[in-house]
Design brief:
Distance between the termini: 21 Å
Radius of gyration: 16 Å
Strand order of the largest sheet: 1-2
Structural class: mainly alpha
Order of helices and strands: HHHHHHEEH
Low-confidence stretches: none
Number of helices: 7
Largest sheet: 2 strands, antiparallel
Shape: globular
Number of strands: 2
């Protein structure tokens, strides 16, 4: 049985990915806002307030989490492009998912993601090979290159999209 926490598996990294794989990840990042919007557009409030698994976040919280996370990612990318190996600040994702703004209508975060990803993709597609090798320092994960972070966030979007689509499939929505 598939682990409901990781419906597409966990992110893996092997240090060497060809340009076409990175280009594919960029496409995934670019397409995420539309795919997420399509996944939740017809859901009722009751459905949006349904956890994707027992003990997991609701669909609403997942949508807001993606916006929170990708805002942090955007900042991390910008820091690494403009500074030398900046140390980034982690955040308590579980606590962020409980703040009052995580219970707003999902349209708020869907609109934010659409605008954010326009800027994010503009930035990421402009990076040279040397810039893709730049890195930031994560206090828990260590050094993270920008090309690895592109992979992480391509996976991250698909991971949470699958939380939603797999729940919809399981419940016949």
């Amino acid at each position: 049985m598939t682990d409901l926490r990781y419906p597409i598996g966990q992110f893996t990294w092997n240090d060497e990915y060809p340009e076409d794989v990175i280009a594919s990840w960029l496409d995934d990042i670019e397409q995420l806002p539309t795919q997420l919007h399509q996944a939740v557009i017809d859901l009722t409030d009751e459905q949006l307030n349904t956890p994707y698994r027992e003990g997991g976040w609701t669909i609403r919280q997942v949508v807001h989490h993606v916006a929170d996370s990708h805002l942090n990612a955007y900042t991390r990318f910008k820091l690494a492009v403009t500074e030398v190996r900046p140390v980034i600040k982690p955040y308590a994702e579980d606590k962020w998912a409980e703040t009052p703004d995580s219970f707003l209508p999902v349209d708020v975060s869907l609109q934010l993601l659409a605008s954010l990803h326009l800027r994010l993709i503009q930035l990421l597609r402009s990076l040279s090979q040397d810039q893709l090798d730049r890195a930031f320092l994560h206090p828990e994960s260590g050094e993270v290159t920008l090309k690895r972070n592109i992979g992480i966030y391509a996976w991250h979007g698909k991971h949470h999209l699958a939380h939603i689509t797999s729940l919809k499939k399981r419940l016949g929505w």
